[in-house]
Write a structure and sequence with these properties.
mainly alpha; single chain; 87 residues
């Protein structure tokens, strides 16, 4: 098990109430839910930063060409519902 450290956070009262409520619904402690949420959010932010860094080194025109090539390889389906069509 990894080491832990106590951190005091100041959060709005309504946010704490929402966190407590959701933890109760999920059947976990508020601490476990907060850790899970912080972990998933920081992971998403880190991934987006990595993607943005990689994209910033690429030529946008070249990326668009590659994406269009992939999209052009997708078989056409005349039965796609209107709500799912790309316009």
């Amino acid at each position: 098990m990894s080491k832990t450290q106590v951190v005091t956070l100041r959060i709005p009262v309504d946010l704490k109430a929402r966190l407590e409520s959701e933890a109760h619904i999920q059947g976990v402690s508020m601490n476990n839910l907060a850790n899970y949420m912080l972990t998933t959010q920081i992971s998403q932010i880190e991934m987006l930063s990595t993607i943005e860094a990689r994209i910033s080194k690429k030529d946008i025109s070249s990326l668009k060409t590659k994406v269009n090539k992939v999209l052009d390889s997708v078989p056409k389906n005349p039965n796609v519902p209107e709500w799912d069509k790309v316009h």
